[in-house]
Here is the input.
Amino acid sequence: MKTRPLGRTGLQVSEIGFGAWGLSGVQWIGATEPESVKALHRALDQGMNLVDTALAYGEGASERIIGSVLRERKDDVIVATKVPPANRVWPATGPASVVFPAAHVVSSCEESLRHLGREHVELLQLHVWHDRFLEEDGWKDALLGLKRTGKARFVGLSVTEHEADAALRAVSAGLFDTMQILYNIFDQRPGDALLPACRAHGLGVLARVPFDEGGLTGQIGADTTFPDGDFRNHYFAGIRRKLVHERAEALRGLLGAEAQTLPELALRFCLSNDAVSSVIPGMRSAARVDANAPAGDGRALSPDLLAALRSHAWPRNFYQ
Here is the structure.
């Protein structure tokens, strides 16, 4: 497993990180705790040294599972977690004083640390964002205060889905060390402005949703069903399943020596942008860990293949 610098932090992160939303058993339905524990152990065995979670993932369930696994091991693991919006609304709605009041930022970090069983977290991220928050100071003093006291070594943002430009001013604000963005073959828009800006200002980048919530794995068909309560019932509502299946199938013609499967193609696409520090697919089984880990070998896609992938972009948002 190759590593890359996490921006200017001095940390080296594995090219493939472990996305831990699915461990919570909420919204992503189907994972069991024993299976989740096995998957995380396998990821660490494969050299993944970055684990991304959030307080909102099962109201701490994901963090607690991670904490239990890390207490069993001696690995030097970089843990990233997130402060949820106080009003629990995604994307950000209202002023920063409502979304991230100072006391909430501090108490959320402390709660995450209790779940993880740690005295500090390597990266603390705000779980929603809009650049208008830069004009308010309460959240800022709280977040940077946690960094000064060492409870959060570094701080960053998790940028709202399909709204990369909503964080452009934050990149140059001098407040943040990292950006977490939705970036994949279908939604390539961060590559236009946000990723170049992060590179220019030395911010680390975590690329999430590389598989478009499963759409880029080729395993979703027009008749695919999801368990009750699974958020994918909404994400792939209406004719979305049919459309995503057709678009995934169209990508199969690009498979070959550079990428033999759609998931490999999806991961290598993200890592072919040198602004990306790590890509963090969700992995709920050891088998998925084993399938994804080889893409972290440092090999980028060729310029010709990347050019071909441009025509497969599918600009949209969560609702259309």
About this structure: The radius of gyration is 18 Å. The longest strand covers residues 152-158. The chain has a mean pLDDT of 94. The beta strands are 3-5, 12-14, 18-19, 50-52, 78-83, 121-126, 152-158, 178-182, 204-208, 278-279.
